[in-house]
Specification:
136 residues; alpha+beta; Multidrug-efflux Transporter Regulator, Chain: A, Domain 2; 3-stranded antiparallel beta sheet; 5 helices; 29% helix
């Protein structure tokens, strides 16, 4: 099969089985923001501050620009989730722990991406926590 590599601006050939085995889904910046429980306008701020990596643009060379769609791959979304899970929100705590309740767990992220099933249970204080996941 032949595919167009927009980053290197060339057509590449590969086996269909290799393509199916190695392909990753692409998510827009807005979809990525929804997956990691952030607002889509907050993502460029994180990129500008150097907290998360920038997306790949749909121009030649992977460049981003005005009115150019930008995408994150599945592996980049998982990396962003890991980074944001360690990113402290609000004022620093005196005990040095990280306060971050809105970032989804790795199992919840894979479920949001459509790869697994996640079951929640309700605790005595009314919170829902994930208890079981299955990979499809």
């Amino acid at each position: 099969m032949s595919v167009y590599n927009i980053i290197q601006d060339r057509i590449e050939s590969c086996l269909l089985s290799d393509f199916k085995k190695n392909r990753e889904r692409a998510y827009t910046v807005g979809e990525t923001a929804d997956l990691v429980n952030r607002h889509k306008k907050y993502m460029p701020q994180l990129v500008k501050r150097g907290v998360i990596p920038g997306p790949t643009g749909s121009q030649k060379g992977g460049n981003t620009g005005w009115q150019v769609r930008s995408y994150y791959s599945e592996s980049q979304v998982k990396e962003i989730r890991d980074i944001l899970a360690t990113y402290h929100m609000g004022r620093p705590r005196k005990d040095g722990l990280v306060t971050n309740d809105i970032t989804p767990s790795p199992q919840e992220l894979t479920r949001r991406m459509g790869d697994g099933i996640l079951t929640y249970t309700r605790t005595e204080d009314g919170r829902f926590i994930p208890v079981w996941s299955e990979s499809i």
